[in-house]
Amino acid sequence: MKKRFVETLKSERIIRALAVAALPTLFCFIFFVTHSFTPASMFTSEWNDELFYFKQVEAILHHGYPRGYFGFNESHAISLSFAAWSPVLVWPWVLWGLIFGWTESAPFISNLIIYTIAMFIFGWCTKPSRKQTIWTAIFFLAFYPNLRYILSAMPETIAFSVVIVIYALSISYFNTHKKGTMIAALILGSAAVLMRPYLLLYLLLPAVLFVTERPKGKRFTGALLMLIPVMVSGIFYVLINHFLSAEYFTPLFYTDVITEFLDSGIGGGFRHLASTLYYKGWGFADLIKRAFLVDDSAPGLFFVLYLWIMVVYAVRVIILMCEKKKAKSSDASDSKQRGTYFLVQLHELLAFAAMLFALLTMYKLIEGSKHLLTFMAGALPVLAVTELSSVDEKREKVLKIADIITKISVLTGLLWIFILHRTSDYDFAVPVRSEAQDERAAYWEDVFKDNIVIDETNAPSYDNTVIWMFADVVDDKQINTDWQMLYRLPKGSGISCCYREYFLDDPDQVKSAYIFVTGGGPVEELLVEEGWECIGNDGSMVMYKRK
To answer: Closest Cα to residue 420, out of 233, 144, 70?
Structure first.
């Protein structure tokens, strides 16, 4: 046993798996070296979703669930007090917090460790060659969102990792037929659906693989068996979303393309679908045009890269299909390898196409563009470890050239978008610590500590909830509230993001005990008029408490 363990450590397989696993740390190291080792910080980030994720995890760890309501315009879940996104999405962070604690740097560290583990599993299961390992490294380091999301309090890195591991396990099963890897892929895929519904596309990979690998006479029963995890995970997602998620300002995704078939019949449903695709298609094309003409069109850039990767996969799948027809006899191992290459790339192509259709019919284009990053993050390492090959020696040389050309074309797209055509700091720049922000945060921490007491006897409740007024108008200019200060709220506090009109139109409907807002605007004037008590003012932001 000891001898076998030592041999494993000396093998090229473990060395390459460790090399792949080191990529997240290497990316972070490169960033910190080039930025004078300035630490990253949530307090200077402009991604406000981070606040909700961080404070909800903090509340779960210290109280079991938030003691105030997370929501929008004071919406709240039917049960408990989570925001619009499934709390299952952050379960790896909760596990991390239970073991190591939840601090301001915990999301960054846990993201790095989670991604490192995922990449190690990918390297171990796919057994990349030296060339494939190099391509994996190149693609990983060229895909800048890998770094940006590691150094954030966003759960995208968790989604990236889940997709990559599902592919790794599926490839391993296809090559080894070990049931353990299949079971692990199905469990992880089912959990992924609970996190985000479109990740169902990745649960389908091990499910379909399980069916196709069974004897022909047992495939029907296998298909019925695989419906169980698909249906169970889907049902649980609906239940979690219904009972534990608060209503957002607008629907997170639209289902009218489905309900229209029920309301207007097949003809009406198809007319509505065609109309939706037409108008959303023009919006999609306009954002792509902006990617070439305007520097701040991140959604358009994501669309361009997404479409290009999709085209590359389509070309590779067509080539492999042609080779599959031409190959009459070949070495069994080579045939199995080509089958693996074809299967995973076909799945990538179909997943890309399905998500593009969903984006054009059910998602808001700008917000939905960020979800495409998960698909690209999974597609790049798969592209790195798959190759174009042929049993014919003459075509083999041509296909190797085609393989390199397609990979270089994708790399060119990555470099153009994330290196040569970087857009605004909002989309790409990693936020770093600021002394000025630290001083303001310290001030507000004292204000919150002295004035907010979490009521454990009545929870969740609006008495434990702070309204974060998204923005107000001061001197005819919209000023966004510095919500970053709310990281210092007491553990367990709820946060409800509200538009100014929600309060200005009817101040009597407000139920929360506290309001945090930009000073000097109509909202503050009405708060004073309504008799709210000012408990904090840093010259820019103010905090009011209901008397």
So the answer is: 144
Total number of domains in the chain: 3
CA angle, residues 134, 16, 384, in degrees to nearest 5: 40
Do 324 and 402 belong to one domain? yes
Whether residue 56 lies inside any domain: the answer is no
The dihedral sign for the CA sequence 356, 360, 366, 368: negative
Q: Could you report the per-residue pLDDT of 393-446, keeping only the tens digit for each?
A: 778 888 899 999 999 999 999 998 887 766 667 788 898 988 888 899 999 999
Q: Which domain holds residue 404?
A: 248-429
- H, E, C per residue of 348-404: HHHHHHHHHHHHHHHCCHHHHHCCHHHHHHHHHHHHHHCCCCCCCHHHHHHHHHHHH
For residue 469, the cross-strand partners are: 498
Residue 159: inside a domain, yes or no? yes
pTM, two decimals, is 0.92
Task: Indicate the length of the chain as a whole number.
Answer: 547
Per-residue tokens: 471: 């923005």
Cβ(496)–Cβ(512) below 8 Å: yes
Taking CA 458 as the corner, what is the angle to CA 453 and CA 461, rounded to the nearest 5 degrees?
Answer: 80
